[in-house]
TrEMBL record:
It is a multi-pass membrane protein. The lineage of its organism: Archaea, Methanobacteriati, Methanobacteriota, Archaeoglobi, Archaeoglobales. PANTHER family: SMALL-CONDUCTANCE MECHANOSENSITIVE CHANNEL. Keywords: Cell membrane, Membrane, Transmembrane, Transmembrane helix. This is MscS Mechanosensitive ion channel.
């Protein structure tokens, strides 16, 4: 057994050295997992989720890198030679796979600039959904239909990103048509009353309700008000129905599309 452990694999590196490297790296991976788990638990209530994930990943890979650098002498590796070789390899890989490098660099810029974070509702490249994770090479989005979409960070960085929850408040807008026979001033007052009764409708900026245009079949009233972004979707659904009900209670109708036809000549019905 001793002879086997002392067997030289290549230029001064024995089986014992190789086994030592494997054991050290396994221990490093175990320690890295334990440390990151405890870091997540300790900082879960103190740091935002996206920042916590970045810290955990840096700690995890940092421990592994330190452990690897510590065992390189056992493998007979010269760090200066590795740096030179790594630089040459990096140039070759960079020319061979520019998209990979671009995604990597874009990922670093995204983590630094932070236009989005985990849990945000966004739209980018025609994809709308919730940010599930931000990797160095790609960003994972779960669409509102529950689909998994992986978007390369190059596209994330160079595309227009719509972040629905970046601001604390968001505007809600309706266009409501009423009949030409109804009182538009009364309809405006009814709608304002519904908005005032909604606890999540913000007072500032103040709601705005006004007649916007005279349509083919209706007088169109524009309704604009703001709500906290966390309640935006529920408020948007709830108030539209409440406005409809209150308008009908006050005798104001929402007409169907209609068209009036005028004939140049009188239409005569031939009696049989």
């Amino acid at each position: 057994m001793l002879d086997i452990l002392g067997y030289e694999i290549y230029e001064g590196v024995t089986v014992r050295d190789a086994l030592t490297v494997v054991v050290v790296m396994l221990i490093a991976v175990f320690i890295a997992r334990v440390v990151t788990i405890n870091v997540r638990r300790a900082l879960a209530d103190k740091v935002r989720r996206d920042q916590l994930e970045i810290v955990a990943k840096v700690i995890y890979y940092g421990i592994i890198v330190v452990a690897f650098l510590g065992v390189t002498p056992l493998l007979g590796l010269n760090l200066s030679g590795l740096l030179v070789a790594g630089g040459i390899a990096g140039i070759v890989i960079g020319f061979a796979s520019q998209s990979v490098v671009s995604n990597f660099v874009s990922g670093l810029f995204l983590l630094w600039e932070r236009p989005i974070k985990i849990g945000d509702a966004i739209q980018v490249e025609g994809v709308s959904g919730i940010v599930e994770d931000i990797h160095v090479m790609s960003t994972v989005v779960r669409t509102f239909n529950g689909l998994y979409v992986r978007i390369p960070n190059e596209k994330m960085f160079t595309s227009n990103i719509v972040n629905y929850v970046a601001n604390v408040a968001r505007r809600i807008e309706y266009i409501i048509g009423i009949s030409y026979d109804d009182d538009a001033d009364k309809a405006v007052e009814v709608i304002k009353g519904v908005i005032e009764e909604e606890p999540f409708a913000l007072k500032e900026p103040s709601p705005d309700v006004f007649v916007d245009n005279l349509g083919d079949s209706s007088v169109n009233i524009v309704v604009r008000f703001w709500a906290p972004v966390s309640e935006w979707y529920d408020v948007k659904k709830r108030l539209l129905w409440k406005i409809k009900v209150e308008l009908e209670k006050n005798g104001i109708t929402i007409p169907f599309p209609q068209r009036v036809l005028w004939f140049a000549n009188e239409v005569r019905v031939k009696e049989s």
